[in-house]
Structure formats: C-alpha cells, structure tokens
Amino acid sequence: MRAFPHLPLALSVLAFQACGTSATKDPAAAAAPDTIQPPSLVMDPHTFARPQEAVIDHLDLDIAVDMAAQRITGTATYSLKRNGGDSVVFDTDGLQIDKVTLGDGSEAPYALGDSTFMGRPLRVALPPGADRVTIAYRTGAQARALQWLSPAQTTDKRHPFLFTQGEAILTRSWIPIQDSPGIRLTYNAQVHVPAELMAVMSATNPQARSTDGRYSFRMDRPIPAYLIALAVGDIAFKPTGTRTGVYAERSVVDTAAWELADTEKMVEAAEALYGPYRWGRYDVIILPASFPFGGMENPCLTFATPTILAGDRSLTALIAHELAHSWSGNLVTNATWDDFWLNEGFTVYFEHRITERLYGKDYNAMTSLLGFQDLQATIAEIDSGKHPEDTALKLHLAGRDPDDGMTDVAYEKGYALLRLIESKVGREKFDAFLRGYFDRFAFQGMTTEKFEAYLRQQLLDPAHVQVDLAAWIEKPGLPADVIVPVSDRFTKVEAEIKRWQAGTPAAQLATQGWTTFEWMHFLRHLPEGLTTAQMDELDRSFHFMRSGNSEILAAWLEQCIRNDYSKSYEKLDEFLTHVGRRKFLIPLYQELLATEKGRAIAQNIYKAARPNYHSVSVRTIDDMLGWQASSEMSF
User: Fold this and answer.
1) Between 341-359 and 414-425, two packed helices, what is the crossing angle to 10 degrees?
2) Which overall architecture, per CATH, does domain 332-473 show?
3) Distance CA 392, CA 378 (A)
C-alpha cells in the first residue's frame, strides 16, 4: 500500500528565456496560441506527489560534489503553488534528509514513508501561506541516477568523472523532487566541484573551466524532473557552429567535434520542418563508455555515448534523434510513462525527416528498415515473456518500473503509426499538423487519449481519413496496415550474401562503398551454422574484429557467439567490459546465454564488467543472468 494518493498535475507554463548565455526574445513564443485550455489532472502511478494540493514551480539547487566520497550534499529550495492542502509530498530514493525549513527560516515537520521500488515519499507539513521549502540532504551510496567513475574508468585516466541519468524515475535519487513527467519546473543551480574539474548541466553552460570549481546554471524553460542532468569531469569544449558545440574529455574533444560537424545543419533542418528551436544553444557532451544509452535528450546538452564516434560520421543519426527531442519530448512531453511512445515515436519520425533532408532517401530507407527489423525482434521477445501486452503503444505500467516500457515498441511502432498517417493524409498536411501540435502544446504534458482526440479533430476527420488507431494504440503486435520499409541497397546486400553462399570468395564480393548500415544488414543476415573457416574468411576479408565502428563490431560479435568462434572471445570480453551501452549489452549477453558454455563466459565477464556499468544497465543484466549481487559489488 502506498502512503499517499498519486495524482500529479500536468502544468502549462510558458517561459521566455532559453539556454543561451543571456535572455533573448523567443520568436516561437508568439506561435503558441493563447487559447490553450488548462490541462486536467492526470494519474501518474510512478510518483508519490500530490500536486493537486501543492506542486513545485521552481527549484534553486545549491550542491557540492564530493568526487572522493562519491556523494552530493546540499540544499534544494522550492517555490510552490498550493491549492488548499496542508502538506507537500516529494519523491526520494536513498536520500538522507538532514533538515527541512520554510521560507521564513522555521523548521518544518516532515516524515519519510515506506520504501518501494519507487523510493520513499517525503511529506512536509505546510502552515497556511507557506510557499517555499528548503530541503538539506545528502545522496546515498545506492543513488541509481549517479555514475561515479574512477580515473581508470575514463578515457584520459587522469581524473574521476560523474554523470547523472534521470529517465525515467531516477532523478529522485539525487534530488528530492516531484518526479513525474507531467510536473514541470524551472531551475537555477550553484554547483561546487574540485577546481581541476568542470561541471555542466541541462541548462546554460560554461565553455571554460572556472578557477575555483564553482559554477552557476539557469534553466528558464519549465522541464520535467527527468531532464535535470549534471556531468562533472576533466572536460573541454569545442564549437561546431554558431549555436552548437561539443564537450568531451580532453583527448576526445577534437575527434568528437569533427564527428559531429553536421550538428548545426541538423538544427537548421529541424527548424525548417517544425519551427524555431526554443532552447538557445544545442550542445552535446560525449560521456565515458559506461553511459547506458546512445543518447539522452537533456535540454541544451544532449548526453551521448562515445560509441557514436565511428571515424566516418556514419552514426550521427543519433544526434538527429536527440535534437528532435527538443520538440517531441522536451517541448511536448508524455504526461506519464504509460504514454512514452508520444516522446519516442514522434522523435524517430522527426529524426528520419532530418536525416532524409541531409543525407537522402536511400539513407532513410536503410535506417528505417534496420529499425523495423529491431521492432520485429523486440515484439517476438516480448511476446515470449511475462507481459505480451507491452507491444501495444499505450502501456499500463502501474506497479512496475517504467524502465520496462522503454523498448523498441515505443520508438519503432510509434514511428510506423506516424508514417502510416503521413501516407494517408500526405506529407504537406502532416507537417502542418505536427508544427501546429508542437506550438499549441508547448511546455505541456500529453496523454495518449488527448493526442488521439486532437489528431482526429485536427487532421483525420477534416481529411476524411480512416486509421484504426485502436489497433495501433491499444492492441499488441503490428496491425495489418503497417508499412514495411524497403531498401534497394539492402536488396543488393542480400544478393552478395547469396553469391558468397554459392561459392564466391568473400574478398570478391561487391562491397565497395558500403555504409555502416549495409554492413549491419550483411551481418544480420548471414546464414546459420557458419564454420570456423568461414568466419576466418569473413574476418580476414573485412576486418570486422578490428573495426572501430561499434555497430559493426557488435553485430560481428553476435555472429561470433552464435557460431562459437573462439578467436573472438578476447575481443568480446574487452567490448563487454569497456562498453556500457545497453543496446549492445542485451543482445550479446542473450546470445551467450543460449548455451551452457556461453552462460559460463557471460558470468565470468559480467563479474568483472559489472562495476563499469550504470545502474540502468546493471538492473537489466542482473535480471538476465539471475545475478544476486554481493554487498561489495552492489551500487
């Protein structure tokens, strides 16, 4: 039983400053009509907050980051909007609460509720008229949002590193907060770090290290708690355009800036599609390899994995994806994690539109088909598990960790639905609809039901177009009217595979000029039961084992495990120990677990690799391996 009801309020608050170094007039602010109706209460089962009584509006954060003790200590001061309640409830997870005071300096009574997978509710009593609360706190040793890295776990191996990962409900483990995507707030932060390190956040950012380790940040746009982010390390900055740039460890920053040279062009392409970018600057930080995702769309500063640094700019579609979140996700946000597809399906669609504009239709066809293949594999896997209903777009995750719903279904099935709608109404009408949608619901939460009603009213009914939305949104699996992507270049890849099977030496295959995506398709579609001699021939001809492209190497390692290619196991150990990106970990560990020999290898590798992984990846791989972590190995 939970301590309090869970009824967060999706707020509609417009702000007028961006993430630049100074306030600027926002040309998009006038685009949003002034007829927006106040959002209604939305049930969010993943927060303890009671915002119908008291909801946070602004945060002033003042913290010190102790890299040696691996602890954050400080205060979180909140401005509140109240509606008659006698208390305010925050989400916490593993935090030590030292003191709670009100705006007049008096101490406020507070109580922590029982612990669940969502953490513990912190209830603070409020006398009449009190609208400001300060919480003095410390993070715990098990703070799931925080990844503390020793110097040896970084690229440069000179200084420690810290980064946060808040999505979905992990921000509560480093800040006491109302941790629901439907609750938005602005924030200012004062962060003190060791003088030899730099701090950056999802806000205004410095471009050079301070002399005393003190940094000030401002986020004047209202954002959900999961988008509050912090990174601390020996990092440097290099511009990639007038309003874009990259942060990274010093030995990486030049490489990263070269790899992400098209970032400014991506911003321009996105604006041409769906209106002005509303966040000032768009920068990227390349994190150490333990980062669990490809990227995280923290406003103003995308957090990204170094596995996108392929040396040929072939994997930068990920940046287009995270940039697109500046509209779909950060601007218009899923009101609850049951509506996650509204963030990711729209973003995949937008990503494809950006990359098609920059790199052409062939590029888009290949990436679309790879995504569809991933979707088919994910649906098959989910169908064989405990929750086959999770292949519907609208999720029902009450009582479960919302991370369970962050699968390719939200991304690729959501994209497939939007692609179907575009095909029925025409691209011109669909673009106008999406631009209007982002303008009208800017800085608001969105439910699936509200979007469906808006879609019918504004687009489908006026165009006299029928789409079986229930089959896509409420029902599992793929509806019969799904559009299956087609790639002529992949058809040619398949022809080369057949030639190899028929006896043509691998070195004589017509592979000249192949992109990363063609190699991925090639590796995914090799025949089963390859011999050691065949694997030797492929690697001798194409040098997969020495590839600096993580997508190609990971796909090759899957084939190596599947075919028990023993020459690959040292490389596999190195890859799984070094890389913490969950996209690569899951299929590789799954392949290992298919045999007893592989299971033993997986257990041995994981024992050494586990301390290098973020808690998001640890939770997934622990579950896969049935891992019972001893206290000295826990986070």
Assistant:
1) 60
2) Orthogonal Bundle (1.10)
3) 12
- Report which of 183, 221, 184 is spatially closest to residue 202, judged by C-alpha positions: 221
What is the assigned CATH class of domain 489-633? mainly alpha
pLDDT in tens, 85-108: 899 999 999 999 999 999 999 999
Instruction: Give the separation between CA 290 and CA 154, rounded to whole angstroms.
Output: 9
Residues of the chain with CATH 2.60.40.1730: 29-233
The pLDDT of residue 377 is above 80: yes
Contact 248, 305 (CB under 8 A): no
Q: What is the DSSP string of 387-398?
A: -GGGGSSS---T
Give me Rg for the CA atoms of the chain.
24
- Angle in degrees, CA 330, 335, 340, rounded to 5: 75
Residue 308 · residue 361 · CB < 8 Å: no
Tell which residue, 131, 67, 84, 142, has the closest CA to residue 103: 131
- DSSP-derived pairing of the beta strands 332-334 and 444-446: parallel
- According to CATH, the topology of domain 29-233 is Immunoglobulin-like (2.60.40)
The runs of H, that is alpha helices, within 77-212 are none
Which of 247, 277, 349, 411 is labelled catalytic?
411
Q: How far apart are CA 62 and CA 332, in angstroms?
A: 28
At residue 55, does pLDDT exceed 70? yes
Residue at token pair 């920053």: 253
Q: Give me the helices (H) in 384-426, please.
A: 408, 414-425
User: In the annotation, is 496 catalytic?
Assistant: no
Are 442 and 331 a contacting pair, CB within 8 Å?
A: yes
Let me know: does 106 contact 39? Beta carbons within 8 Å: no
CA 149 centroid distance within chain: 20
Q: What is the pLDDT of residue 41?
A: 59
* Nearest Cα to Cα of residue 222 among 30, 15, 24: 15
Q: For tokens 């946000």, name the residue.
A: 333
**CB-based contact 476:388 (threshold 8 Å):** yes
- Of the candidates 526, 597, 593, which has an alpha carbon nearest to the alpha carbon of residue 556? 526
DSSP string across 63-111: EEEETTTTEEEEEEEEEEEESS-SEEEEEESSPEEEEEEETTS-B--EE
**Exposed (0-12), middle (13-18) or buried (19+): which is 105, by Cβ within 10 Å?**
exposed
Question: Where residue 633 falls among pLDDT bands split at 50, 70, 90?
Answer: very low
Q: How far is CA 571 from CA 309, 516, 559, 560, 574, in A?
A: 19, 20, 13, 10, 5
Token digits of residue 330: 């950060």
322 is a catalytic site residue: yes
Question: Among residues 53, 167, 259, 322, which one is catalytic?
Answer: 322
Nearest Cα to Cα of residue 95 among 77, 60, 117, 71? 71
Q: Where in the chain is the domain with CATH 1.25.40.320?
A: 489-633
